[in-house]
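Work package 3, deliverable 3.1, input record:
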Amino acid sequence: MSGVNTTFLGGHATKSGLPEARDRTQIDKIIQEASKGSKFYAFQQRREQRIAEKVAALQIKKTQLSTGYSKAEQETRKWLADAESRRILERTYLHIDMDAFFAAVEVLRRPELATVPMAVGGESMLSTSNYVARTFGVVAAMPGYIARKLCPHLIIIPPDYTAYRAAGAKVHEVLRSYDPNMSSFSLDEASLDITDYLARSSATPEEVTEELRGRVLRASNLTCSAGVGCSRQLAKIGSNVNKPNGQFILPPDPEKILEFLKKQPVKRINGIGKVTAKILEDLLKVVTCADIISQATWIRLLFSEIQSEFLLLSALGMGSAFGDGDGSERKSMSVERTFKKIDALSDMQVVLKKLCKRLAEDLLEEEWAGKTVSIKMKTAAFDTLTRAVTLENPVSTDEEIYKHASKLLSKNKPPDLRLLGVRLSGLTTDAPRYRCLDDFAHEPVERPSCPVCTQSIDAHPDDTLRINEHIDKCLVPQSNLVPQSKKPRRTLDAFFNKSGPL
DNA sequence: ATACATACC
DNA sequence: TACTGGTATGTAT
C-alpha cells in the first residue's frame, strides 16, 4: 500500500465527468504530496487500516459460510423474483440537480468567472467548483489550499448563502408548479412526483422536462440537470447521466431499468458512500449494480438484513430512496465548530458555552426542547468522541444545556481538541399550547412562587405567560402596562441569567 | 440508552 | 498553516 487512496482525501471526482486537463494519476499524486505528513493524512491511514480489517474479517466469515452457499442461493433467487413481482412502474418522478450551483450563482454576478477556474468556499474547505476548475481536479469537499496546488490560478470565493437561498427560492417556485409537494433535500436538489402533472398535460416526460428546465433557466438564469424515472432513486441517478445542462428519461420498463443500472457504479446509489463501495469491491469485486445482483447471495449472507435488502432493491431500481417517505419532523438540532487546537479545559468550556448559546437560539426559533444532550469532541488527531445524557425533563435554555454538556466535557476531557459540538435530541415542542384546559383543571399542582416578591403565583407552573406577567409586574411595579413578550420564556431566562456560568 | 461510523449536500 | 457543518441513520454494545 503506497499511500492513502485519494478518495479518502477529499479528491475524488465521482462527480460528472468532464475531460480533465490533467489525468487522474497526476491529480492523485499532487493531492498525496499536499496531504502527506499531516495529521489528517495519518488519521485517514488509520481509517483505511480499520476498513481493511473489517474486510478481512468478512472474508473469514465468507470462507466459513461457503458450505451453506447453494441453499442460500435458492432463497436469494426466490427473494429476487418476489421483489421483482412487486415492482411499481405507475408513478413518474423527476429529480432536479442544479449545475455547480453556488459557483453558478457567483458567475451570475461576475460573468468573467465563467471562463476561469473558480470555487466557492474557503482555504480549509470548498463547497463547489465551476466546470473549468473541475478539469484541474478541483471538486467539492476538497480543502482550498490543496485545490490551489492543483490549480494555482484558482479563484476562491467565500460563500454567500443569502444569495444561494434567493436563487434556490426562485427555482423552487418553478418546481412547485409541477408538484406542490415537491421536496428539496438542499438548496440545489429537489425531487418531484410529476405523475399528476403528466396526466393533466398530455405532454411526454421528455417535453415536460425540457419545459421545466427552460422555466428554471428563465426564472433563475441557472442551468440544471434532470432525471426522470419511476422511482425517486432512479430519477436521482438519472439526473447525473447528462450533467451539466442535460436530462435523462428512463422509461418505466423493467428491462430498460435493469439495462441502465447494469452500467451504473454502486457509488451512484444514494446511501452507498466510499466506505461501502470499497468494502463491496474488496470483498466481492462488486463495482456495478449488475455485480450486486450477481453477488446477491453473498451480500445476503455477509451483510445485515437491512443492509442487504437495501443493496439488492437499489440494484434492481426498486430502492425506496431517502425522501421517498414522510419528509418528517426534525429529530435533533446541533451546533459544532472547528478551531485551532486547544488543550485547557477552561478554553474548551468557553467554546462550549458559546455553542450552547447558539444552540439555544436555534431551538427557540423553532420552539424545540429536548431530553438528550450530547457533546461531540474531535481531537487534534481527528479522532471523534461523543458523550450523551438523557434527562428526566426536556431542556431548551443555554444554561441548562451547558450544565449537562460541560459535565460531560469535564468528565471526558481529551488532552486536546480541534472541534467541539453540542446536540439536543429526543425533541419535543416545548410550548404548553398542546395541553388542554382540562389538564390544568384536574392536575393537582403546586403553585409556582415568584422569585422577586417570593409570594406564590396564581398560575400553573407551565403557564409561563402568567408567571411572567406576575414577575414583570414585580420587576417594574411602577408600570401597569407591561408589554407582553412574544416569547415568554425569554423573560424568565433573563431573570435567572445572573446565576448562570460565565 | 450510548457510542461510533457512514452518508448526504 | 490549513481537511467543514447540520442532520439522519445503521451497527454494536
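The mean pLDDT of chain A is 85.
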